[in-house]
């Protein structure tokens, strides 16, 4: 019974709100509409505020009230999690009001809206890459901004996501096995080069060595010596790059295995 009463009350409330909004939108008094839009906005009723702002903005274009209206209109989209539209609106704001005291804020919010559109790792990461470039441009443009720390942290999060996506692609090649081992080795090497400051660089190098070794094992006899020599070369490079790595002993074991294979081939 309580459930049905709750549903009924919610239905009545929605109907009442819709009726009130309808009356506001039908009014011919634009100042009244603006007042109601501001009221809706203050009450965090962003759907209603957005509709009223949208209705009256053409009438206030060019007035001293237009900038503030546009600013709140952009935030209406943002607060409804419509980040695609919000990004476009914040961008338009910065273009239309280049001398605004809110310029820095809206430039940052445009970047942040791209960040909010960044999808899970498995999906296309265009928005993630765009976030990095926009946040870097923001930092370059506003080097003294109080938002620099947040911008830098977001860039780090985005880079980590791109790194993880690239890792998953390389790991997929490795897990597929067979002649995909060569593709895996190249992918792990590229991953290491793309993220030289990663704390997992030595792991990526180890995975490349393992993939090259497995690829050599599967190769025809005529190609094996050359490919085991590639493993040895990669192991030596590992030792030069990662002198203190916890994976050093495992790398040494792959080097020894490759050397033994070459000895057996050349007997």
UniProtKB/TrEMBL annotation:
<dbReference type="InterPro" id="IPR011990">
    <property type="entry name" value="TPR-like_helical_dom_sf"/>
</dbReference>
<protein>
    <submittedName>
        <fullName>Outer membrane protein assembly factor BamD</fullName>
    </submittedName>
</protein>
<keyword id="KW-0472">Membrane</keyword>
<keyword id="KW-0998">Cell outer membrane</keyword>
<feature type="signal peptide">
    <location>
        <begin position="1"/>
        <end position="20"/>
    </location>
</feature>
<dbReference type="Pfam" id="PF13525">
    <property type="entry name" value="YfiO"/>
</dbReference>
<dbReference type="InterPro" id="IPR039565">
    <property type="entry name" value="BamD-like"/>
</dbReference>
<dbReference type="InterPro" id="IPR017689">
    <property type="entry name" value="BamD"/>
</dbReference>
<feature type="domain" description="Outer membrane lipoprotein BamD-like">
    <location>
        <begin position="35"/>
        <end position="176"/>
    </location>
</feature>
<keyword id="KW-0732">Signal</keyword>
């Amino acid at each position: 019974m309580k459930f049905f009463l709750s549903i009924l009350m919610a239905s009545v409330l929605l109907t009442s709100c819709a009726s009130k909004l309808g009356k506001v939108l039908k009014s011919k008094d634009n100042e009244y509409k603006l007042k109601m839009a501001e009221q809706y906005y203050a009450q965090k009723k962003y759907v209603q505020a957005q509709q009223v702002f949208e209705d009256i903005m053409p009438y206030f274009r060019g007035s001293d009230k237009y900038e503030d209206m546009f600013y709140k209109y952009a935030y209406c989209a943002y607060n409804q999690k419509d980040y695609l539209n919000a990004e476009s609106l914040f961008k338009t704001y910065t273009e239309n009001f280049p001398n605004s005291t809110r310029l820095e804020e809206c430039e940052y919010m445009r970047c942040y809206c791209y960040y909010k559109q960044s999808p899970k790792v498995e999906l296309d990461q265009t928005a993630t890459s765009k976030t990095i470039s926009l946040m870097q441009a923001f930092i370059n443009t506003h080097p003294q901004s109080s938002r620099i720390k947040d911008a830098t942290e977001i860039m780090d999060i985005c880079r980590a996501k791109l790194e993880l996506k690239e890792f998953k692609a390389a790991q997929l090649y490795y897990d597929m096995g067979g002649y995909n081992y060569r593709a895996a080795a190249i992918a792990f090497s590229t991953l290491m080069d793309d993220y030289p400051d990663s704390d997992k660089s030595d792991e990526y190098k180890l995975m490349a060595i393992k993939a090259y070794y497995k690829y050599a094992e599967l190769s025809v006899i005529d190609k094996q010596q050359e490919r085991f020599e590639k493993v040895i070369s990669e192991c030596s490079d590992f030792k030069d790059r990662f002198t203190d790595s916890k994976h050093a002993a495992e790398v040494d074991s792959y080097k020894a295995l490759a050397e033994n294979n070459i000895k057996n081939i050349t007997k």
